[in-house]
Design brief:
With 88 residues, the protein is an all-alpha fold. Mean pLDDT is 82; it is low at 78-88. 77% of the residues lie in helices and 0% in strands.
Length: 88
């Protein structure tokens, strides 16, 4: 069982950060960091890490999909916060 599966997201992030520090071309490290940071609510970091994965491998379809979902969710979240504020 992985650290993330055990619920230890912070330790998993630390391990993947160490991985990409050792090998800055390790695309899976950036991809997984993006997913883990999204789970932690660190959306800007998640997008940056998915972008880094795509810089290394522009054919990584899952990274495009996850980045798109993240962008869509953030847009909808922002829309509803603005809407609630204007209705108050």
């Amino acid at each position: 069982m992985t650290l993330a599966e055990q619920g230890n997201i912070k330790a998993a992030i630390a391990d993947f950060n160490q991985t990409v520090k050792i090998d800055p071309t390790f695309v899976d490290g950036y991809y997984n960091l993006g997913l883990l940071n999204y789970r932690q609510g660190n959306h800007k970091q998640a997008v940056a890490q998915l972008n880094q994965a795509l810089n290394i491998n522009p054919k990584l379809a899952d990274a495009y999909g996850n980045r798109g979902q993240l962008s869509t969710r953030n847009s909808f979240s922002f829309y509803y916060r603005v809407r609630q504020f204007s209705l108050s």
